[in-house]
Structure prediction request, 215 residues.
Amino acid sequence: MQNNKETALKVAEFLLQIKAIKLSKKESFQWASGWHSPIYCDNRRTLSFPKVRTFIRQKYAETIQENFGQVDVIAGVATGGIAQGALVAQELELPFIYVRSSSKGHGLQNLIEGEVEAGQRVVVIEDLISTGMSSLNAVQALREKGCHVVGMVAIFTYNFELAKNNFQKYKCPLYTLSDYHSLIEVAAEKGYINQEDISSLKSWREDPANWKVYV
Prediction:
């Protein structure tokens, strides 16, 4: 997982400013996985703020151009990566497709929506990486279609070791615009959190499945 430090700090600042990331000091958020967390990230909020939306779109595009060379298609992961991916495809003047979490239950029962051919070089767009498995399921679906997935770009990652291992296992390079370490750095600098909060946030990231015992 790689990113540009200056961009990572700026994106983290934006996410905090628009409350796309919420840090709770008194109660935890429960994820779909059952994990309890002192942080909740909703990057869909970036779409409602033109300045932030534009900055993120441009940084997505720059990251793709700098790291992946010639690309044929941009693929968004449903649902958070669809709007972001469409914006990036427009910025780069490339075709856009998206990958569902499961096949549509009617009609053509598509898993991949849009036009893509075997052998095309595809970059996958996500908004958020936790363990990475839902994103990597999309990568696998594209590979089974015959696509050459050159990598993935996301707005934010929690820097879980599990995610790092999963992306290595699937041999899928991952670049993110920001990450958990940058978020904590900016949140502390701007006064969103204090030293006690930092300790709790760090302990959560080290063992998120059991973090509630620290609350």
